[in-house]
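Question: Send over one sample?
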Amino acid sequence: MRTNPILLTLLTAALALAACSGGDRPAGPPATPGGTTAAGGTAAPGGGAAPGGTAPTTAGAPAATATPPAAPPPATAAARLAADLTRTETALRDPATPASRLPGLGRAQQRHYRALVRRPRLRAAVLPLLPPALRRVAEANVLAGAELRALSGPAGRLPRWRIVAPPPAAVLLGHYRAAEARLGVPWHYLAAIHLVETRMGRIRGTSSAGAKGPMQFLPSTWRRYGGGGDVHATRDAVLAAARMLRATGAPADMGRALHAYNPDRRYVRGVTAYARQMRADPRAFLGYHQWQVYYGDTLLPEGYPARRPVVPR
């Protein structure tokens, strides 16, 4: 991770955004501590253009080229997305929602926020249509995704990462809570950093700058804060992140501590926005835990590189 040389409920075991980064995945992966690039931001829209074609012919009649269906008017598209986002966010926050639905809900949430980050005109039409309480949630997730997208450079050649399933949500929450109890760093900030850095542990790989592990530490920074642990072990990495944040201002000045973790104010604003969502409603963690890895606009599914990346049409 990138540092100054002087210098991540009420959930149950069913806890499985996101995006955040994006909440939506930014156009290029956001810079991480130590000059790495990692997953972060908000989600990507899932739909592509409908295939075109020609109209069927009849005997003795010339073939006619089919007219592609007109794109839905902006008001219709905005109303549809607002309704979908409202249903998704409401279900994620409902304790009665079965755990089996969480993966689909979290990934839909990520796609919705990615669409809003990437399309400002659509965002301006959608946000006023949301219920007031959810509008604040959406605004925060869009802010986080936009900040992290702006932090990123253009995506280049696909990275030499492995994409794996993250630890279960209840296990991760246990690590965050243990670090909070020990060092006083709020769990939701640790979760937000974990989300932005490696999508809660989905990314396995060393950055071009040499940063490693689920919380992206440079070797020099790890020697200072790692406590003799394993940089690739989630528990050890979360504790090390908490040590560093505590040493640089947390919990009293989280902005300063986050800036020490990654000295860019866009990073600070993005992580803070995700963290505040989880503080306000710990069930927000459910959606974020399901957010996938996007490199630019390319989805790197769990199992990558054995599984092919999904390139939007």
Q: What stands out?
A: The first strand starts at residue 31 and ends at 32. The beta strands are 31-32, 36-37, 162-163, 203-204, 293-295, 298-300.
